[in-house]
């Protein structure tokens, strides 16, 4: 007899394993409360043999581009918040020692508030969602919630908000997560899958709560995001070289292919290798999207430095043209390494780290980039590496966190909490998680306590990096 396997709420099931009833799923969530009380999430105490955070970062940097590492450390050293953005690994190590409910979702792995933002849906609507999945992996849902909460506390400190204001922001975001999960627990699986936040629903939900100035800032953010498209990228990153369209260098942040190839490597040969890479990547796309990609041809290629935590990983931008120079397509190929969660939550089921990122992103995002795909290639250094590809800019927008006032950050935190709950509800047992969270604020208050404690630890870790830079242990470059 053939046994059929399918993925269901709570994990993998077969025809020999009946789907649990709603009552059983509720009971599972409530049973988790007895094993892991919601109040226990307030706990954070550094392990007795906690690894030095700078040592952890150095180990992570071993596989990265050496000449770019000073940029990474320079960006992380700017403030406790920029340090936090690049310190997903130290926090994963810390979260491994915190209470776990045993309820698993497709976790982001790096769900801080700067990793949420605006982008275009295939239907050309502006939507808000998580936008960074480098660390995605099945894991504890509470780890993502705690990283989001800690990021709000840390960002609030960077903005000189009072402790009362910061507490209100963190509680609002955590409460939004809890209430949203309970709302989705009563919806059908299809309703959860289709749920998303677009510009109009965001304005309707949060506009009335914001002052006139904040509403205007929100509207300007939507308008600005729509200008960040392929034509805008052409104007920003490209020009001409010998009469041909080309990416303009801005070293070390943007280094064109012609300046990257080493001795003994002919640019034409490397270009053919890149065409082969795009052909291999093409096979990870759906057939109709391959047809669209085939209408473009590769014009130029460059290495690009992105983000804070990603600096040092190999990231490239490819300029392709369709009918003419007014029909550009910019793709970003970003190196995918093992998730920081793998040591603590288990190895990925995918051999290709790029595929891990793409599958996780498709599970968590309500809508996705039509050119999202993966590939494995041999790099310029002869090493085999995994990459995932997507459009470089497609109506992408992010919040100006440093300019936020408390009321604005509170609304933004609520939106992030809603978005994270929706993402988790797509892959995890939303009924069991909702039953665990309950209708009261016990979990919210506990996470609020955790966020404050972890922000203290993050400040100590940031100071350790700054000290390592001053002592010469770590080389850093600022202003890049």
Automatic annotation (TrEMBL):
Biased composition (Basic and acidic residues): 20-49
Region listing for Disordered, in residue ranges: 1-49
InterPro entries per record: DUF2252
Highest rank taxon of the organism: Bacteria
Pfam families in the cross-refs: DUF2252
Stated name of the protein: DUF2252 domain-containing protein
Organism in which the protein naturally occurs: Pseudonocardia aurantiaca
Lineage: Bacteria, Bacillati, Actinomycetota, Actinomycetes, Pseudonocardiales
């Amino acid at each position: 007899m053939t046994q059929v396997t399918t993925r269901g709420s709570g994990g993998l099931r077969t025809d020999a394993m009946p789907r649990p009833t709603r009552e059983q799923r509720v009971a599972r969530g409530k049973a988790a409360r007895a094993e892991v009380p919601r109040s226990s999430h307030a706990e954070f105490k550094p392990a007795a043999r906690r690894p030095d955070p700078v040592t952890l970062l150095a180990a992570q940097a071993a596989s990265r581009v050496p000449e770019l590492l000073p940029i990474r450390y320079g960006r992380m050293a700017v403030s406790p918040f920029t340090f936090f953005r690049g310190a997903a690994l130290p926090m994963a190590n810390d979260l491994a020692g915190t209470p776990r409910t045993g309820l698993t979702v497709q976790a982001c792995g790096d769900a801080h508030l700067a990793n949420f933002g605006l982008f275009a849906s295939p239907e050309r609507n502006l939507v808000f969602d998580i936008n960074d999945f480098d660390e995605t992996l099945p894991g504890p849902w509470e780890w993502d919630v705690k990283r989001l909460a800690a990021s709000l506390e840390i960002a609030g400190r960077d903005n000189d908000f009072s402790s009362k204001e910061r507490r209100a922001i963190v509680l609002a975001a955590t409460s939004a997560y809890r209430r949203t999960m309970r709302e989705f627990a009563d919806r059908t699986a299809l309703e959860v899958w289709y749920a998303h936040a677009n510009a109009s629903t965001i304005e309707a939900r949060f506009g009335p709560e914001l002052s006139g100035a904040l509403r205007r800032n929100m509207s300007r953010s939507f308008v600005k995001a729509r200008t960040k498209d392929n034509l805008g990228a052409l104007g920003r990153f490209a020009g001409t070289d010998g009469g041909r369209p080309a990416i303009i260098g801005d070293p070390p942040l943007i280094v064109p292919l012609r300046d990257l190839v080493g001795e003994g490597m002919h640019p034409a040969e490397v270009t053919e290798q890149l065409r082969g890479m795009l052909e291999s990547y093409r096979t990870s796309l759906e057939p109709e999207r391959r047809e669209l990609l085939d209408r473009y041809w590769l014009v130029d290629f460059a290495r690009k430095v992105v983000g804070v935590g990603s600096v040092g990983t190999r990231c490239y931008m490819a300029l392709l043209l369709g009918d003419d120079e007014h029909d550009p397509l910019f793709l970003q190929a970003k190196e995918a390494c093992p998730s920081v969660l793998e040591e603590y939550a288990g190895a990925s089921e995918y051999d290709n780290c790029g595929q891990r990122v793409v599958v996780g992103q498709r599970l968590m995002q309500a809508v996705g980039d039509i050119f999202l795909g993966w590939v494995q290639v041999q790099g310029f250094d002869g090493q085999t590496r995994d990459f995932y590809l997507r459009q470089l800019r497609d109506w992408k927008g992010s919040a100006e966190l440093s300019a936020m006032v408390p009321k604005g950050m509170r609304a933004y935190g609520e939106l992030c909490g809603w978005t994270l709950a929706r993402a988790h509800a797509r892959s995890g047992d939303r009924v069991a998680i909702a039953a665990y969270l309950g209708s009261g604020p016990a979990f919210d208050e506990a996470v609020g306590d955790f966020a404050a404690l972890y922000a203290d630890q993050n400040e100590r870790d940031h100071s350790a990096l700054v000290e390592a830079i001053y002592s010469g242990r770590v080389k850093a470059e600022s202003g890049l």
